[in-house]
Each structure stands twice: as structure tokens, then as C-alpha cells.
Write a structure and sequence with these properties.
By secondary structure, the protein is α/β, with parallel strands linked by helices. It has three helices and eleven strands, in the order αββββββαββββαβ.
Length: about 200
């Protein structure tokens, strides 16, 4: 009987250690919504919760292959593929008051883009730099795809813990490995559909 109790105790201890290790191995939800220029995350921080990791899914749409569909309420970006499938990426979206929907095209692409916060962002966060060169600590991350003539972009991030949350000023952010993959797949001129709710 004593041997059985010892065995059960050891199993419980091992299980609790495994839960704490596995639970901390994914990016944690964001604790604040401010940009952190200059912060360089540990590469392990880019390991996303499985539900936000890039994957191929069944996806029903009338949009042609190659179209990007952003579902802000779901926190996913889809690249339509042939055969009723899509490549799905977990994203961070605009916080309340900064969400939008519409139809645009990718007008420009940039590797390691420089960052110039717009005046509206400076007014809300006066501590931000007025300009920052591209690089690992830049809030735009490794790549940016510019949406029409707006101030909005699909870009990387130096805050991987914000994927799956609503914290941005209207842009869509992916972890750097995902935005590099997307950048390599998507040409300038690609149609982008931004939706608040799922639909065809």
C-alpha cells in the first residue's frame, strides 16, 4: 500500500511539472497593448500555441486561389489554395476602436521595414520613437506587406505573445517566421479581403 502511494505521488509530481513546462513553452497572452520598440524576443517565444500555428485547413470561399482573407474575429489570416483549402496563420489584430473591414490589394512589400509611427499613434503613445530602422527590435518585424494606400500593413512583430490578441492600431501581425513565409508566397497586387465575421 505504501509503495502504491509513493508511485501515485511521483506520477502526480511528474504530471504537474510537465503541465507547467508545456504550458510555458508557448507564447503567453499579451499583458499590455503598447509597442516595445527595441525589444528583441527570445526565439523560443515565437513558438505559438498550436491553434495559432501555420497549417493547411479546409476552407470554403468563392474567392480565387491566392487571395488573402483576414478574419479579425477569429484571429486568422487565410491564403486561399485550390481544392477548397487554405493556408491559415494565427495573427494579432486591431484592438477595439481600431478594427476595420474592406477590400484592398498588396501595393508594396518590404524586408526588415523601417517604422515611422503615424501622428495618431504618437499622440496616444508619446514615448515612441519618431522613426526606427528595420531590424530584429523593430515592431514591424522581419517583413511588411502594405495594404493599398492606407497606413495598414500585414507585418511581423517583435512581440510574438500578441498573436491571437487584439492589441494593434489596425495592422495585422504574424510571428516573423510566418510573415517571411507569407511574404515569399504573395506577390504585389494580391487581393486582400478583411472581414469582421466569417462568410463566403
Amino acid at each position: 500500500m505504501l509503495l502504491l502511494r509513493l508511485l501515485v505521488t511521483q506520477i502526480v509530481l511528474v504530471a504537474s511539472v510537465m503541465v507547467s513546462v508545456l504550458g510555458s513553452s508557448y507564447a503567453a497572452p499579451a499583458q499590455d497593448d503598447d509597442d516595445q520598440p527595441g525589444f528583441i524576443p527570445d526565439p523560443a517565444a515565437e513558438r505559438l500555441d498550436p491553434k495559432f500555428q501555420k497549417t493547411v485547413v479546409f476552407y470554403r470561399t468563392t474567392e480565387p486561389p491566392g487571395t488573402i482573407i483576414v478574419q479579425t474575429s477569429e484571429r486568422y489570416l487565410y491564403v486561399v489554395q485550390p481544392g477548397g483549402r487554405a493556408l491559415r496563420y494565427g495573427i494579432g489584430v486591431g484592438r477595439d476602436g481600431f478594427q476595420w473591414q474592406g477590400l484592398l490589394k498588396i501595393t508594396r512589400k518590404q524586408e526588415w521595414p523601417d517604422w515611422t509611427p503615424p501622428p495618431e499613434m504618437i499622440a496616444r503613445q508619446p514615448y515612441l520613437p519618431r522613426w526606427m530602422a528595420g531590424g530584429p527590435g523593430n515592431p514591424l518585424g522581419a517583413r511588411a506587406l502594405y495594404l493599398g494606400n492606407t497606413v495598414y500593413r500585414i507585418h511581423g512583430t517583435n512581440q510574438p505573445q500578441t498573436i491571437g490578441t487584439a492589441v494593434s492600431s489596425g495592422c495585422f501581425r504574424l510571428v516573423n517566421s510566418d510573415v517571411i513565409d507569407l511574404y515569399d508566397r504573395i506577390p504585389v497586387g494580391t487581393k486582400v479581403v478583411v472581414r469582421q465575421r466569417p462568410g463566403l
